[in-house]
């Protein structure tokens, strides 16, 4: 019995089909993953991958292949992020950039966005005005001022009424919740201001208050002005005596009971930020203080 022979047409068709099945698949598209990542900090890194889709003629499934190391990588805006040859991108600054992976004429893209997370405002340090030491008199009040330094603008703020005040020896001097210290006896007392930062850290600052006897017989007391901010300016008094420049503290003697008017003028590039609460009105560039004691007055220049 003779086996039937294949026709020439059938042979040609089988040859074509066989050649299609054995031919190498061709890259048709590239997918970049992740396709739209967001970073929020300078120096953050994102590993991109390039996935190639390969096809060949006939009813064959699409072949997916990791071609990350074969592709050429490019960032359209290196100021926002750079990318190396292995697809690792590094964030540099705010903005958006297009990340592309290329092999021949086939290109795949993704979008990388740098959106910084706003920094939580937090207290970083405290300063007590008047500095590390102050002198007062028994039976007299001394207004203290707490200046808070922050990690965001405005970086300096009067927090006198927000901190917790404490005296190391209430027999010598007590202090109320607004930083007003009262001398009770001759001696030394450390007055401390305490607050918390955003992360719960305890922050303190203090001054040593020396209480003297009121029997000195002097008819005058010393008014001292302290520049507590990062800026600078001039402060002058009426009647004359106080003339502070370049952010330096200065002092002068005035008769007990005298009303002294202080005027603050910020230097170029600085702004006026307020007075301590014993100089009223504390928010105006000109304020007045009654000299009843050795009076410390704080001023803030931003």
Tell me the strand order in the biggest sheet. 2-10-9-6
Helix content, binned percent? under 10%
Number of strands: 28
Gap between N and C termini: 110 Å
Give the helices and strands, then pairings.
Elements (H helix, E strand, L loop, with lengths): L7 H15 L3 E8 L4 E2 L5 E3 L1 E7 L7 E4 L5 E4 L5 E3 L4 E4 L3 E9 L2 E9 L8 E7 L3 E5 L3 E3 L1 E6 L5 E3 L5 E4 L5 E3 L4 E4 L3 E10 L5 E11 L7 E8 L5 E6 L4 E2 L5 E6 L3 E8 L5 E4 L10 E5 L4 E7 L1
Parallel strand pairs: 2-10, 12-20, 21-28
Antiparallel strand pairs: 1-4, 3-8, 4-5, 6-9, 7-8, 9-10, 11-14, 13-18, 14-15, 16-19, 17-18, 19-20, 21-24, 22-23, 22-25, 25-27, 26-28
Task: Write structural notes for this entry.
By secondary structure, the protein is mainly beta. It has one helix and 28 strands. The protein has a four-stranded mixed sheet with strand order 2-10-9-6, with no helix packed on it. It has a four-stranded mixed sheet with strand order 12-20-19-16, with no helix packed on it. A four-stranded mixed sheet has the order 24-21-28-26, with no helix packed on it. A hairpin with a 4-residue loop joins strand 7 (81-83) and strand 8. It is rod-shaped and about 135 Å long. The termini are far apart. The relative contact order is 0.12. The mean pLDDT is 87.
